[in-house]
Queue: 3 jobs
Job 1
Amino acid sequence: MHMLKYIHVALVGNPNSGKSTIFNNLTGARQHVGNYPGVTVERYEGITTYKGQRIQITDLPGTYSITPYSEEERVVRDFLLTEKPDVVINILDASNLHRNLYLTFLLKEMGVPLVLVFNMMDIAHWRGYSFDLEKFSEFLGAPIIETVGSKKEGMDAILDAVMAVAARSAEHSEIKEQGSEKEKAGNQGIIMYAENVEGVISSLSSALFSEVSSSDGLKEKGNTPAEFLKDEILRRWTAIRLLEGDPAVQERWNSPEVERLVKEAKNTLAEVASGAPEVAIISARYDVIGKLCAESARTEREVSRTASDKLDEVLTHRWWGIPIFLVMMYLLFQLTFTLGALPMEWIETGFGWLGENLNALWGESGESSLLRSLVVDGIIGGVGGVVIFLPNILLLFLGISVLEDSGYMARVAFLMDRFMHKVGLHGQSFIPMLIGFGCTVPAIMATRTLPEKRERLATMFILPLMSCGARLPIYALMIPAFFPTKWNAPMMWLLYVIGIILACIIAKIMSVTVLRGEAVPFIMELPPYHLPTFRTVGIHSLERGWLYLKKAGTVILGISILLWVCTTFPRLSSEEVARYDARRAEAEKAAEIEAQKSITAEKSVSESGENLIPADKINESGMEVLEISGNGSESETEHVAESVTKSKTETVVEDVAKSESVNAEETGPEENTEASVLEGILAEIDNEEAEAALSYSFMGRLGNVMEPALLPMGGDWKIGTALLGAIAAKEVFVAQMGIVYKLGEVDEESESLREILKKTYTPLQGFCIMLFCLISAPCMASFAVMGREAGWKWAVTQWCTLTFLAWCVAVCVYQLGMYFHWGV
């Protein structure tokens, strides 16, 4: 057998045909994932070596057709035309051949070298099917392999067939010159349809070659149409695609001559077939498929109701289907964000440990080091904020993969499609929206399951309006601060509902404006239920996790450094820093004096409790004022006092340390009042300095610049600063408010911050701030993933649109509230 340098193989098949399982069986861990240029469809490629032959395998997206209505169909068709793989492995579900063979016929029309794989033979045999593989192979002009992908049966047979077909293609590049007419038709893959349809196809094919052969205006990858149409199979394929109205082929072969020829051919076909040309050709294909299956496939027993049929009676029930689905999604949500909490805590702890150890390298002298701040606060903090979501990503896509591979996700589309289409979305859009209540990042990535680009973009655009888990700390902080306990749950519910309603309105507007277009034919399959393989779902989950780290992590790292710069520079002047240092020194000195005073008073108490030194005999420095009797001089008196004070002072430091240690161990830190007071004073000074530094930084200055725009919605520069900090992550809003109000480290349970907010703002202002946080621009991670998935133009548009919408809604609510005196 002729040995090639390598064989390039493409896997093509319907969704749920077991294609991905076979791909994983053939390539194992030697595979990588990327995106096709210009689209979000994933590209899976793997390498295997069989009998010394290196084979590169590309797993193309699952599709029912290669008419480029969806991105998946366009990717498959363009890949086969431009990449020209040596062999195409067509995976078919043997238990549903009548439907799967339609894609096979389309591949045969293109003339690609095929290996047909009848997969899921165990299910087909259980249903009583048997096949005359020799007849199938002779008619289709391709070898047929029987497999059970879930059990890895038939994998070597596939590779043997691939090597044989690749070798034959390499040795006989011009197959059409060999054999009789019958062999020619079989080898080329030309399947003859009904005579009336075939006559029109043949006439148009010949007319195309003769009419456009002299045209220099039409090009096909650098070749003139005449050269392209010399190939009989490509000429016939072009004619069929033009008759079916393939938009991509029409654009490629756009000229008045071609348009005239196609119009005449369509009119002729409509007359002879008594119907639309597209319908006539589709019907012609299914007529041949029906005859082929009738002759070459037999059913030994009739299976009236399968287990899948019985499950569908419950899972797709008119009334119970959606509640069951909601329960399933709730369980998936719980799996993702509850079980993921522990590993998220581990990751957070790990990054915290790393930050602490890096801090220790600089020591106390490095507190003001810019390099330390960049590494610990900027880089470690930024990367940690991304990696912490990794358990969510893995668990989420593990659950989605299980539901997809089991066949349940197809039922979800069936249940939700009608309602979602009313608001301009796809039935499967509901799943990312539901996931968005946990986190927008995996929700955006989950839109990859949507088949059409317009609906995918619309879904991604509205996902930030779902109240993600990062907004919960904001709600948990502000709702109890401004509303009584009985209103807490209704206010939380109201915010969620507002987000959903706005999402539906925006999606509908987008569907009739920027994303308007003809509805894409929605082909939906309800495959039989089956147990997903651990290998397949595991590989998919790990791949998604790696893509998340690779795509989001690098971008977020850069933005984290940018935010660090904005909150760090410009720094306070040395005079300002010295002023705060002086205040700290004064506080420490005052505390030391008070401590000495207290200790001296305590030392004056005897064991019997008698006061040896009255309190009025202790001066402000904690020294005993001695009265010397007799005729001693004033200098002698001072000398004696100084000596006594010195002897007592030598024990002060020791006694303070012992006293504070005993107090801390026996009575607790709350009773160590002197230390607590000093600690509080120093913390207040630190936070005042932090507030001053923040106000002086670029971020603080932006907050002050924003204030005129925030005032109409009830905000101020402090709210603006917190909103800017929340760009990195929504939770940062709470921490930023703590810094602004000089409370140091606070969280959503901080009663002191709630009290200050309650005194500073009205309930109306609090509600408008929450509205703004709900609607406004998504967090940094979501922005980065949106840019990667939809393009940076869409990411910027989403950011600006939602921010402006949030401002408009908040302003309207605040102004109406002020006018009607609501919550003021």
Job 2
Amino acid sequence: MLAQKYEPNKVEEGKYQGWLDHHYFECGDMSKKPYCIVIPPPNVTGKLHLGHAMDNTIQDLLSRYHRLKGEDVLWVPGMDHAGIATQAKVDARLKEQGVSRYDLGREKFLEKAWEWKHEYSDFIRSQWAKLGISVDYRKERFTLDEGLSRAVAQVFVTYYKEGLIYQGARVINWDPQAKTALSNIEVIHKDVEGYMYYLKYNLVDSDETIEVATTRPETMFGDVCIVVNPNDEEHNYLIGKKAINPANGMELPIIGDEYIEIGFGTGIMKCTPAHDPNDYQIAIRHHLEMPVCMNEDATMNEICGEFNGLDRYECREKLLEKFKKEGAFIRADKIMHSVGHSERTGVMIEPYLSKQWFVKMKPLADEVLKAQEKEESKINFYPKRFEKTFNGWLENIEDWCISRQLWWGHRIPVWYHNETGEIYCEVDPPKDIENYHQDEDVLDTWFSSALWPFTTLGWPDKTEDLDRYFPTSCMVTGYDIIFFWVARMAFSARHFMNDVPFKDCLIHGLIRDEKGRKMSKSLGNGIDPIDLINQYGCDTLRLFLSTNSTPGLDMNYSTEKMEADWNFINKLWNASRYVLMNVDEDYTYKKPEISSDIDNWIAGKLNQVITSATANLDKYEFGIAGNEIMNFVWNDFCSMYIEFTKTSLNSDDINVKHETLNTLIYVLEAILKLLHPFIPFVTEEIYQEIHQSKEVSICIESWPLVIEGIDSSKTDSVDSIIEIIKQTREIRTENNIKPSKELNILIDGMNMTDSLSSILYKMTKLIIIKDTAEETIVRPTSFGKVSYIMNEIVDKKAELEKIEKELVRLEGEIKRSRGMLSNEKFVAKAPKEKVEEEKTKLLNYQNSYDMLMEKKKDFE
């Protein structure tokens, strides 16, 4: 028997391991339609967050739903090596031990990184178990495992030989803390307070000076020229002259380039090609040198003279002091400007000229855009509006910097000949490896993640899984990584598989805190999903995440809604316990006959929710489907049907009792199946209790089907009874009438059977009469009307006096409020909020007055 109290942690404990031991989640039934999902791989830097819990909940919901529908479901688990983030974590651990990765060397450091990976991958698996996800662990992959590493190398080599990967010097985004390049979408731009510094430059062989403005004076050591617009009549006379750089005294030629916006700022710009992408383009056009003035850690290098070795910001301050002493400083205006920060470490990025590896993106993007034009070859986005976001990014795509100056990651499969410098690019190293040295860099983590949907299934080998399950069925992810991941998976699959990576892409929003703020370390408002599971249980968290989200929209965490979802599960638990308490030793379950009015009614309601929930789940409308099922359970099954059945369950006729139990258990099992994708633990516990066995499982049950032969007229009759019950309860509450007091009523518009009359009396103490000479209070219904005997409900004279008294009060309030609002001085001088408040009061007074006037008619 189910425990008297629902305790989620006791229910969930051990259940997951039991599912694994029975192999319920393993794929491979070739007789069934294949359905495949690959998990968005969490990185091995720490714990899962609420975003991961959202991904996992929705994907598990889909997996369990399609498994119940009789499909061969493969859900591939896996993890991501997360190059920059993991290396930073391992570096920090080593620092605590008093060593650095340079002390260890590359190979020993990688051993430490693998130790970290094993530690945290075990931790992540334990969290997956807490969430109850139904993955096939036989298929688990890691982006740095042997098979995926070989696949990554194969992709690099193929791109390289096709001319889609090249090496070149470009101004890239440089993370001076991680000491690595970043792609554009790994840079977060934040508005920060800064200064625009106005400086005086002396012209060579002249007493004339010019004014140049910059936000980054420390980069002046890398300046190669001064630039004006050749069409700028105020300044174009300067072209051909030279100015003296006040930072180092070097003579800088003044050139003309139309990039400079006429009239913006001083109209004169310094050019630092190695530390600004726009200046870099000017240097390309004018064949200028590109000196780098910083080291990889953003300290100043040897060309900076006395400032060599200083941090970039310390250099800025000392350089400004120098300018002030020498008279080159004019002024500093405080500004707010957008500055790029590393998405990984949070430090301000440094535009930096560096030799890196790039992927030519336009040909790859064009392949995807062409496929998106046809229904049969496109990725279907849910919601559809994200397809425009996806296409827009591909249409304006830039080449992708894929090299990272790290040790943890896929090392670039390029070797250089020690003498000739000849490049060798193959999956396997050269046979005469002693004559070569390998490129030191590793690939961007997203390079391997982009291949996830097909490499996890065995590519580049031709495997049964790849043939059966690719393209995968659905990808679930947040809108914040459409560019990072979805687009890259799309062009990778199109290029190497000539197909989509997944047929559908379901986009969910971010989970924000209760105030609608993004969760972050700086705000201290992050929520650990494991803490929520320990407090409320996993099923409660899953129910909250799945039924309170709308595809593509952010959602706020809500303690109130979490508690409401816990209450719902508790309601289901208690209802199930009540049903099972009524099962006696003589009872054997049989499929119900659905003969009585109330059985017919609950079967009809069940049919409706099965049909609607199925349609909404197929459209990824989990919130709508879940709330429909919950409303059916709470309002129709628990609040009404169980109450309806109490008489027959207490019947002396054992056949009546057992037929009622047949229907109760049939509907309860259907409810458990409908809810199982949302709340797997509690539905499994109740299901096993119904069957009195831990060896059976709802995981391998079938999705409920509608019941044939339901009489809709009987369903309508019970709906009418429920309407009368609710109406009567309202009347008793309004007039303070005890539930035990019998009331006489007349019903117009429906045929009342003896069984329905009996139910109505049992639940409301209503006696149906055919006629009366007494005054009545008439209440309209959807089927007609119900008339209540007035003197059984209320003292007419006293009620009329009460109404008259309240009408007088309301007339006074209406008169007062209208007077205030017609006073021009009040409206003009009072705070806007006060005026709006008074308008709302007047509207409420008038509505109350009108309602009372209608009520008064009942007593006149």
Job 3
Amino acid sequence: MIKTLAIEMKPSEDNNNILQELLSNFFMQKKPPVKINPKMREKEELIANLNQAKKELDIANTNFEFAQDEELVDYFIYKIKAAETRYQYLLKKAKEKNINVANLDMTHIWERKNKIE
């Protein structure tokens, strides 16, 4: 047997606002904002950028290996140089901020078991 709960409310502006807020909170599942330490956020962003730069470098190297057209070879040489420069810059910044980069994924794209997304 299903029991229902009926609440009698007289229409008023306050009740309407409270009901709207309750429904909004229920359906939106509002969570309090998470406060992240700015230094921790910077560290996480730098590590994410380093991982992305490494992936870009691996992809550029792989594409270079399979490029057959002379113009594509030149293009991938440019991409490799740009990716290396970005990666080296990010490594330098990480070392300046004393961020341990030893745990980054340093295996080449061909040696990975999982696909790069």
